[in-house]
Design brief:
mainly alpha, 6 helices, 2 strands, globular
């Protein structure tokens, strides 16, 4: 997660609080998605961005997860996301993101 996005997430968390705010990820790799989930929950583990040492406690979900998929118009999901489900390791991505949300 680049520094600009980290700053935007931090600003939104300060403005709206972390109780009702979630982060929806769309990364194509489990490791990158997990790193982003860790960054918004526990702070930037690379200590390179605005969230270094800032545990926002936000919950992150990947767009592949049922909780998110069920909230998106099925036609939009089919047009924008479903193709990627066929070529990516969906289970690995979901499990990695869930680790930081439930762990």
């Amino acid at each position: 997660m680049d520094m600009g996005i980290q700053q935007r997430v931090m600003d939104l968390a300060e403005k709206y609080g972390n109780e009702d705010l979630i982060v929806v990820l769309g990364g194509a790799e489990a490791e990158a998605s997990g790193l982003a989930a860790e960054t918004v929950s526990k702070g930037d583990p690379t200590f390179a961005g605005p969230l270094a040492g800032v545990p926002l406690g936000l919950k992150a979900y990947h767009v592949f997860e049922e909780e998110i998929k069920n909230e998106v118009d099925p036609q939009v999901y089919d047009d924008q996301v479903s193709m990627m489900e066929m070529v990516l390791d969906v289970d690995a991505i979901i499990n990695e993101v869930r680790t930081y949300r439930e762990g």
